[in-house]
Predict the structure.
Amino acid sequence: MRYTVYLPSPPLATSVARYWVMEADRPPLTLRHRIVPNGRCKLLFNYGSDFLCQYNHAEPDRLRHGSVVGQMDRPAFVQPTGRIGVFGIELHPAGARAILRLPLGELEGRLAGVRDLLRTAWCRELDERLRASRTDQERREHVERALITQLRPEFSVDATVSRALHLLARGDSIASIVADSGLSTSTFERRFKNSVGASARRFARIGRLQAILRDVRHSPGKAWVQAALDAGYYDQAHLIKDFRALIGCTPLEYFAEESAIAAAFAGVRL
């Protein structure tokens, strides 16, 4: 499988974190791949065969055209039906609204068709151009031109939320971050969720779990228990509770099954 990451051009850098391309001519078609929350909303454009995705419903949906993934609150399971060709757009937590143009809390825990949320003609044209393209460079150019026309300055980054994200990444408590904002707890939570797509507490939980996954991936042989302690978990039971809630299994089960396809959909490379 080929997995390649690209950075956005400057006009899009405050909204787009990165692009990635995943391609495979003969993927295993019988395996389901567990996709876990990574703290970012995504746009996914499929220019290969359809994917089956179990997320919105008990029975898998068939994904053919572009999809919007809000902040995930549970795992999704995807299964290719043939050749894989996906162009992924990872959006910054505080910058996604400038492209999606709606309060992101409305998308939490949802996978929707791009055509259901954005202009149908815009989506159809981009879909067709990506399918007709032959190189990553062509696809990037089509995507960037389309995204620039979609940007709206009235949905620019909320400075309070941007600072809150910085403090969360530093490890500050949510209570201290709310106090720093000068807002009431309810006002802070509403602004944070509208800008990021999840509550500050859930976003912090996703960040801690992703820190563990990065640590274990980048340090072969490191025990996940030690990675959990380094990420701020106070005991094993606390970690397993969060894993089951957000990833749907235990750490041992997850690390035993994680695939390159699952990692790619989460925006990382195994």
